[in-house]
């Protein structure tokens, strides 16, 4: 048992709506780990165009998504290119339309709104139509409920929901979370993961630790 090839674009036969994103996304400012998939009835091939919005290379921000993540239809990552300068009376981006309106624009008023990279950890489940705002960091093992709007960092192994999304539940107690993060099964070689699937998808932390 070796598991699927993470570079296959459409790993499920007769089910083209699911795709491993590593083989589908080529944008240099997007990094996606092995086995992370996107599910869309129109197909996953346009993930970068449909789901990663306002992501302009000249800004320099990156979208980093870990391994073994499940991303549902309609999830959206809003990147820093969507931000407007907010320090003045108007947030209207006069400068981008030129014809003299760009004169006197202070670039720093806009650059101060850059929130940095958006980072999704490993083994994260992002529900249908969830929106992830710029610069958010989602911890390993977290779950983002459908239609949530995530405006702040999400702790590992938490479940967040709502607009703005808040922690509604921790999946495991604090001690177990620390042990899970230390085990970091997603970084194991694929053959080791394949041999220990029952420990990974089970709920016995001692059994998982014994496989480390």
Automatic annotation (TrEMBL):
EC number, UniProt record: 2.3.1.-
A Pfam family: Hexapep
InterPro entries: Hexapep (IPR001451), Hexapep_transf_CS (IPR018357), Trans_hexapeptide_repeat (IPR050179), Trimer_LpxA-like_sf (IPR011004)
Keyword Acyltransferase: yes
Domain of life from the UniProt record: Bacteria
Gene3D superfamilies: Hexapeptide repeat proteins
Protein name: Virginiamycin A acetyltransferase
Highest classification ranks of the organism: Bacteria, Pseudomonadati, Pseudomonadota, Alphaproteobacteria, Hyphomicrobiales
């Amino acid at each position: 048992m070796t598991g699927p090839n993470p570079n296959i674009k459409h790993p499920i036969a007769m089910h083209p709506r699911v795709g491993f994103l590593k083989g589908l996304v080529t944008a240099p400012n997007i990094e996606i780990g092995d086995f992370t998939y996107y599910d869309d009835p129109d197909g996953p091939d346009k993930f970068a165009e449909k789901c990663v919005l306002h992501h302009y290379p000249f800004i320099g921000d990156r979208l980093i998504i870990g391994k073994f993540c499940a991303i549902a239809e309609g999830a959206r990552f809003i990147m820093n290119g969507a931000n407007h300068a907010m320090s003045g009376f108007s947030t209207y981006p006069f400068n981008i339309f030129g014809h003299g309106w760009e004169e006197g624009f202070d670039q720093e008023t806009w650059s101060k709104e850059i929130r940095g990279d958006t980072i999704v950890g490993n083994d994260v489940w992002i529900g249908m139509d969830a929106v992830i705002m710029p610069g958010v960091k989602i911890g390993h093992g977290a779950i983002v409920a459908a239609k949530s709007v995530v405006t702040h960092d999400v702790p590992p192994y938490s479940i967040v929901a709502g607009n703005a999304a808040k922690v509604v539940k921790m999946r495991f107690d604090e001690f177990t979370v620390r042990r899970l993060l230390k085990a970091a099964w997603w970084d194991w070689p694929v053959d080791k993961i394949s041999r220990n699937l029952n420990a990974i998808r089970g709920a016995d932390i001692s059994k998982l630790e014994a496989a480390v």
